[in-house]
Amino acid sequence: MSVDYSGVSSGIIGRAESEFKAKPTGSSSLGKDAFLTLLVTQMKYQDPLNPTGDKEFLAQLAQFTSLEQLTNINDGIEKLTSATNQQQMFSAANFIGKEVKASGDSLSKSGDTVSKLYYTLPEAATKVTINIMDANGNIVRTVDQGAKAAGEQSFAWDGKDWLGNAQADGVYFAGITTAKSDGTSMMVDTTVTGIVSGVSTDSSGGYVLETQDGRKLSLLNVKGIVNQTS
């Protein structure tokens, strides 16, 4: 038994040759017309007495089509990611020269000036203790804040250690412990402020705001603008 494809063979082969000649050198995508032409051309040369081979061929074509679709989806995601990163860069640049408030626990000391720390208590605390640590995690001062009401509170460190000695200029960190009336502790959100002087990226590629006093605040942690400076 045989199947006559003679009525379409010359046109098919001609279209296939024309399609491939028209494609730019190095192109990684296969046009729809060329794909369909190759499909029909392959069917022309299939052995009608070997249906298993036909099934394998069709399965391969289905895999090829799925791969092409996934490639197109991946290209779309990459373009979207690129556009998002560009938008984040512009957003970060708009903060330059402005004082922002962001989630964080870093404090900056420069001479007699120390940046402020803000923290929010979900409910009233009978005791709040703030530990000031240096860049190595060593506690240089512990400050007892006493009882505090629920809501946002502020803390201003005087830049001195336990003995009243002024500490070196640089970046420090604050750790807060709390106690409720039943003796249990609670989670505390801390925020800091700083005047943005520049923008950079971290190890993961995320945008970071650099402050005038040497700290770095993640763009994703910014909660608002406190004040604008020229």
Automatic annotation (TrEMBL):
Pfam families: FlgD (PF03963), FlgD_ig (PF13860), FLgD_tudor (PF13861). Keywords: Bacterial flagellum biogenesis. GO terms for biological process: bacterial-type flagellum organization. Residues 87-223 form the FlgD Tudor-like domain. Required for flagellar hook formation. May act as a scaffolding protein. The keyword Nucleotidyltransferase does not apply. This is Basal-body rod modification protein FlgD. Residues 104-179 form the FlgD/Vpr Ig-like domain. InterPro entries: FlgD, FlgD/Vpr_Ig-like, FLgD_Tudor. It comes from Fundidesulfovibrio magnetotacticus. Belongs to the FlgD family.
